[in-house]
Amino acid sequence: xxxxxxxxxxxxxxxxxxxxxxxxxxxxxxxxxxxxxxxxxxxxxxxxxxxxxxxxxxxxxxxxxxxxxxxxxxxxxxxxxxxxxxxxxxxxxxxxxxxxxxxxxxxxxxxxxxxxxxxxxxxxxxxxxxxxxxxxxxxxxxxxxxxxxxxxxxxxxxxxxxxxxxxxxxxxxxxxxxxxxxxxxxxxxxxxxxxxxxxxxxxxxxxxxxxxxxxxxxxxxxxxxxxxxxxx
Length: 232
Description:
The protein is 84% helix and 0% strand. By secondary structure, it is mainly α. The chain is elongated and about 60 Å long. The chain starts with a helix and ends in a 16-residue tail after the last helix. Mean pLDDT is 88; it is low at 1-8.
């Protein structure tokens, strides 16, 4: 009987580890997509942008596989407590990561259009927020794979920096458009890119909330002990 129990536990651990492996692969993929989509604008590299668009197919497949495996695990293993939260967290994080991939794909498609226009000096602001968001996403993925609730909390609090930078870029682009109406089309594209990056930052904070819930069993936004650490 003990051997049977050990076998069941070992099989369950293998299932959880497989979910973690796929989450790691999906996370690394969308992290690359995010960085490359911004780089395709900075370097005016439409070939790189096309590669990002193609990567999204793999991201979608991975997200679907994680969902299927997590649902199968719940149906067959009936996880409880932390194991149940880990399984649900995997589904939630996979969904957020898939959305990051979609947003990066959107940036890449817009990059292809931007690169066809005459070069104007508007990419610096996008590059700045892209760097900040990539750091935020990398930190969220690290917290996810390590189940590090403290790091997740720190990244969650820092999301205000991304919001502030997006607002600054919005004002900058508005000034460009008012000063030279010929830049309106290009500025609108850059504004779309900046908004997608800001939304990627939001998904990174969602991942941090899932990590916090997995570890502590309570929603980060409702944790009274954290009141005042971030404006909600």
